[in-house]
Amino acid sequence: EMGSLRELYEKASRFRDLSREKAYAAGILEDQSLGAQEREYYLEIITNDQQELSVLEKQLTELFTVTDPNDKRSVILEIRAGTGGEEAALFAGELYKMYLRYAEKMSWQSEQLSLSEAGQGGIKEVICSIKGNGVFGRLKYENGVHRVQRVPATESSGRIHTSSASVVILPEVEDFEVTISDDDLKIDVFRAGGPGGQSVNTTDSAVRITHIPSGIIVSCQDERSQLKNRHRAMTILKSRLYDLELSKQTQEISAQRKNTIKTGDRSEKIRTYNFPQSRITDHRIKVSWYNLVEILSGEIGPMIDTIKEKMLSGNVTE
């Protein structure tokens, strides 16, 4: 409860203090005997305070406006390598590190649920949970295909390659919000593959759950315990089913929520990471940033703020 109110409280307190300071400075300026240098000083205070007050007012309005009931939820983050083979897997790994570093900066808790590795440190697929207040509200705009343009380390001719990875952000749901009948599930256990040791690959601890009505299949094999893998798989399955139902509801009211649907369309290329120009371009709002290295190191807050503001105002490309 305290965590959910902290941001609102801090911004409201700052707004109150600046308002008082500005009013005090304005009162001082009414003194006709004030010297030119003192007058300039208090005018500068008023100008600076007003600039920050304008930003705070916009942020407070946003905090008081609930645009999506899921915004306060934790999330399930899924990243998959797309076209581009090994280079796409490396890029997927970099995106994963970017989100983990951002989660750390935001004091969110992350837990890896499933990982399928590729060669040279790349990732074929990764699923993780990120818990905290307002995670979905911050990360939901990352849904979509992310494209990278750069010269791979294995490219001897210096030719720029284009690869991609898909990012899916699902709101994490509580057990009571999604009811699944046991009759709708097919559960298989099998021996975990890949590096492991310590009995990871010698017992049937991996779990595959198939939801028969929807055809959704979830596998987990990271834990040595079959029970833990089953719990993780069910958590992912419930979030996917919740997202599936949410998508159906969204499509039914598409005329009223066109921009929201566009945000969630994972078939769209939403962003390009151009390494030769150190540029990141978000194609939905046609805005570029030229600090690619910093953003990949987890400094994505300002970029998310800009995207969120333009998305909420409907300032997106067709």
Describe the protein's architecture and organization:
- This protein is an alpha+beta fold.
- The chain has eight helices and eleven strands.
- The chain has helices at 2-29, 36-64, 85-105, 135-139, 226-252, 258-264, 292-296, 301-312, and strands spanning 75-81, 109-117, 123-131, 144-150, 161-171, 185-190, 206-211, 216-220, 269-274, 279-282, 287-289.
- The protein has an eight-stranded mixed beta sheet. A three-stranded antiparallel beta sheet has the order 6-7-8, with helices on one face.
- Strand 2 (109-117) and strand 3 form a beta hairpin.
- Helix 1 (2-29) runs antiparallel to helix 2 (36-64).
- The chain starts with a helix and ends in a 6-residue tail after the last helix.
Structure summarized in a few sentences:
The chain is of the alpha+beta class.
Oligomerization state: single chain
Strand content: 15-25%
The low-pLDDT segments are: 195-201, 253-266
Number of strands: 11
Helical stretch count?
8
**Largest sheet strand order:** 2-3-1-5-4-9-10-11
Terminal Cα separation, in Å?
39 Å
Helical content stands at 40-55%
Shape: globular
C-alpha-based Rg, rounded: 24 Å
**What structural class do you assign from the helix and strand content?**
alpha+beta
- Reading the helices and strands in chain order gives HHEHEEHEEEEEHHEEEHH
Summarize model confidence as the mean pLDDT: 83
Q: Describe the biggest sheet?
A: 8 strands, mixed
